[in-house]
Task: inverse folding
């Protein structure tokens, strides 16, 4: 009997690195494809910071946690290898929440078809969660205007790099915050950011003053940490903050304190948290908004590709430490 | 030559209580009233928390600080005692930013006439800065809906008490946070709040759980301090926070840290700071919104009246410590 590999979550993470003990690698028998079903062979999986949050129970979270013993949740891209469904043909490419598994049996609900000719890395780096998240947060919460200044943290990450490029294309001054000189150089030299700050080695306050001399109008938050206070200090009146991610705090023993709220009043700042599940109905509009930028070559991406299903576990830690250079993708 | 009394600001405050040394009480000669001018005898001055902020230079503030040597800024109510202006008759009552002074010479610009028959305490407690601020913040940033739960800090203060009563009239469950049992009793027994928390003696987290069992949808922030973290912990998805005041931090040696931002994402919270100077053009609309509630007897107020111009200095400290019971007014 032929089998395939999947990885189940079997324990909840403690503060600190993600360990292999939290997961169980299992062999499953190849399923038979029933009426109205399709079998997808997953070719590429996306690793995203939000996945770390999905591993822990939290009654207040926006989606339920992954159940213990269930396949770890993730989005990915695959090819239909068997179909008993009139809407899907063998050979078509689809993407959706398939999880850490080589094969995925489904009725097709929630899957999106992927246009032929689009490179898999481009699909997962731009037209998947990162690009949709960047577009929703920037326009839905950031309200950027030409001539303004935007600062984005996690700027070399999959979301941050798209946020910065969209804002740059819209005529804003764009400053990225990242965790290595290599990433900072990439932001400025390859993506065309106006400036970049290495939060590990630069004097953040001084650099913000230098790179955002007219003050900050939009802050797109992907990381958390001490940047928040410095951004508040440099924010202009009526500034907007889109809160997308807090990767620095997701697995921290003690989440860091936030900045004092006095600047929120003095500068009449609006801070808005958002998550994509609230906006799934808007996905067609978000793709329509994003596509022209991509077609005009204004959105570059780089993928950091890991090999094989089991590399996913170490991949999550790379997201936590920022060791990845580009969108983390696991090739199966 | 007859004179009148005014109080000038002559030094900037240090952290801690406001001291008499920051001010100079001066005698000024009665002015002659030129063409197009009126002389107003101020009868009642309003003391508001924002005034503490106006005493310190802060290039990022929403209005310039009071200049050293200038009359201390405040709003008040008075009566026209001389007029060379076609739009103002002797005996009419007016309100506006007249400052700490017994008499005010002006062209009338920026003054509003006050309807005869309205009690002076009611005017300054409801139809002045407190009521306008409450109305703007609650509806402009809080977006309350019947059936929801609102928590307001500084609930027994001039703004907070109106916020809570408006929300109660709109069909929300309303919980107030205040600093004494006397204030808490007043909120529940006189104003009809559903519950009140004494932040100095109650277990805030436990009380919030008990009094807001369905979670918090709107938080109206007047004080700052540790309440923020507890509110975040109890907030519902898509909660709104209107940030109006941070009285606990205005004169603090070190402003307190704010809460971590993870709940902002998980609960998709929107936080919005606001100040009235951004909304002065809306004052007629705000008064139109507020008036029916007042006319239907739904907005009670209580004034804490001090006597004489020089009591203003101690009055500012009462605002900082919460020693006042009701809207602070200085009767001249």
Result:
């Amino acid at each position: 009997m032929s089998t395939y590999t999947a990885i189940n979550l079997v324990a909840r993470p403690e503060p600190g690195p993600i360990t292999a003990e939290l997961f169980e690698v299992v062999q499953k028998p190849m399923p038979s494809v029933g009426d109205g079903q399709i079998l997808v062979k997953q070719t590429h999986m996306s690793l995203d910071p939000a996945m770390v949050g999905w591993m822990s129970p939290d009654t207040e979270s926006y989606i339920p946690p992954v159940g213990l013993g269930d396949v770890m949740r993730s989005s990915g891209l695959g090819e239909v290898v068997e179909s008993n469904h009139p809407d899907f043909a063998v050979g078509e490419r689809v993407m959706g929440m398939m999880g850490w598994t080589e094969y995925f049996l489904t009725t097709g609900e929630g899957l999106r078809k992927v246009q032929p000719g689009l490179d898999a890395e481009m699909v997962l780096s731009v037209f998947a969660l990162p690009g949709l998240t960047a577009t929703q947060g920037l326009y839905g919460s950031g309200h950027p205007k030409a001539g303004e200044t935007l600062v984005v943290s996690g700027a070399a990450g999959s979301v941050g790099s798209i946020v910065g490029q969209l804002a740059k294309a819209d005529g804003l001054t764009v400053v990225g915050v990242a965790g290595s000189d290599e990433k900072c150089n990439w932001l400025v030299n390859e993506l065309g950011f106006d400036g970049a700050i290495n939060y590990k080695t630069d004097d953040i306050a001084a650099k913000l003053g230098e790179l955002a001399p007219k003050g900050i109008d939009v802050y797109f938050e992907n990381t958390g940490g001490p940047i928040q206070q410095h951004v508040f200090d440099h924010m202009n009146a009526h500034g907007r903050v889109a809160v997308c991610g807090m990767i620095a705090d997701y697995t921290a023993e003690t989440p860091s304190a936030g900045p004092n709220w006095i600047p929120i009043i003095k500068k009449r700042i609006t801070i808005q948290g958002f998550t994509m599940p609230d906006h799934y109905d808007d996905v067609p509009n978000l793709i329509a908004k994003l596509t022209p930028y991509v077609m005009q070559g204004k959105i570059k991406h780089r993928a950091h590709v890991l090999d094989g299903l089991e590399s996913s576990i170490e991949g999550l830690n790379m997201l936590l430490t920022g060791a990845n250079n580009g969108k983390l993708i696991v090739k199966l």
